Amino acid sequence: MVPDNELLKDHLSNLGWRLLMTDTRLIVPFGTEGQCLNTSLDVIHSFSIPEIGIKDDAVPGRIKSVNFKATKPGLFQGPSAEMMK
Question: A single GO CC term, please (predicted)?
Answer without folding.
Answer: mitochondrial membrane
